[in-house]
Task: structure prediction
Amino acid sequence: MRTIVTGIIVFILWSILCTWFYLAYIKGSATDETAVADQPVAEATPAETDSLSTTIEPEINLESPGTYAVHHEFDRSEIIPDEEFDNFIVRLKAFREQVPGIKLNVIGHTDYVGSESYNYNLGMRRAKNTKDYLVRMGVPGQIIAISSEGETSPVATNETDAGRAKNRRTEIHVIE
Result:
């Protein structure tokens, strides 16, 4: 099942890239040349000259990948790569090509087990390991800021195992 989902996602991304390339380089060039060749030569008024001097480029509407949460095992900071995270990185890199000025905020979080200072440091290690993984996957390190909130920002209760598991995370925020 995982292979099928991966195949579908790769096909969709490939289709988007091919469509963009076709519109930007192939159809855009051919349309401009044939449009000029088919039109009769006529004098252009100054208003028409101004409108002709602007180039219309196809716009690709990639949505921001938004926020993503990498979950960690208890008292661990290592990244366990999975397909969903890798897909997020692919979308992130494609979006960065469209919007080069983006920044990433990577924030490490923990559950409430352990001292406050230990959890702050664990959150920082999680954020650093996430940044390192993103850099290995081709995201420039200079656009990534890391920080830790330790145990101070839970998204679920710390009273249950499931809630604590949700709180052991590193959030990646895309800032446009």
The first strand starts at residue 67 and ends at 71.
